[in-house]
Protein: Coenzyme A biosynthesis bifunctional protein CoaBC
Organism: Streptomyces endophytica
Amino acid sequence: MDKRERERPRVVLGVSGGIAAYKACELLRRLTESGHDVRVVPTASALHFVGEATWSALSGHPATTEVWESVHEVPHVRIGQAADLVVVAPATADMLAKAAHGLADDLLTNTLLTARCPVVFAPAMHTEMWENPATQENVATLRRRGAIVVEPAVGRLTGVDTGKGRFPDPVEIFALCRRVLARGAQGAAVTDLTGRHVVVSAGGTREPLDPVRYLGNRSSGKQGYALAATAAARGARVTLVAGNAELPDPVGVDVVPVGTARQMREAVLKAAADADAVVMAAAVADFRPAVYTTVKIKKVDSREPEPITLVRNPDILAELSADRVRPGQVVVGFAAETDDVLANGRAKLARKGCDLLVVNEVGEHKTFGSAENEAVILAADGTETPVPYGPKEALADTVWDLVAPRLAENRR
């Protein structure tokens, strides 16, 4: 093996025996084409769905289920020891049970026991199997031990059934794997949010004037979605309350769609009841029309429109900060400012009473809709953390870098 091959991130792709095994081929392709050295370890059941030749051809490595092949290389130990990441996709209910109980009856389960790197499980099964208390207990056990078990998607299952249990989008699993590997390469704590439930709000609310028009804002939801995705990659259970965001659901995240500020308040407060941290990244409308017209407001020639009277919307961030339903809960707010950015941000931090406030400058062609962001994170203890211009995922990780130690301190 030359130096270049040794420097390639080494990924073990475990494939268990579910119909979604064929979708793992797309994940494998993306991993190999982006420069990862991937070894596929299927179960015997997985080979009923996708043959060994396919896995070997796509990965460039032999794919076997047996611990008795190439015994001199001790594969049941060496594969896990050498990996930078193990991802099991799909992970069946049977595989989750075996992993949770430390069983080792084939090459994949042996690999899981010897791995000292981050482990990601992407479950896929029928809704009844996912919701069964035994499966939920196995998932909870794996998460307590530091594994990342992403939430399955909701959609069409085998046959005519529909529900939660669908294999997550391989593109999103690939993105999560990239994030996990990147944090590991930086020497950062990969799963420092394991066992935590975090709530993130994203997007912009819309306050209807009539059945056609609304008052809204320019928020795309990208920063909130980045916060949700990075939290999931760090092991958290994530609830994303999304206001009018036209973005794909981050893998492993429970998404609650809302429209108005009042709907967002209801959803956030409900989710926050058992949350360790709440991050209010959404652009929530401060005001709404006092009257909603059930028919379209007509334009009348030569007559000026009637003035629109506005009333205040609830202040969700202030309410969360003042009435924390869970001891030690960390609350993070966002302040989008157009002038006197830091001065306005410090005043807002004092007024809202949150633990951290992410302050950034916004404008018609700045921040909103962009893939990049720049901010200063103000803390209630007076510290300030500047985040230079860069991907919104980088800002999201910095937010969690500040939240995680506060959660650890609160747990003591």
In short: Confidence is low (pLDDT under 50) at residues 1-5. The chain has 14 helices and 19 strands. The two ends are 47 Å apart (CA to CA). The first helix runs from residue 3 to 7.
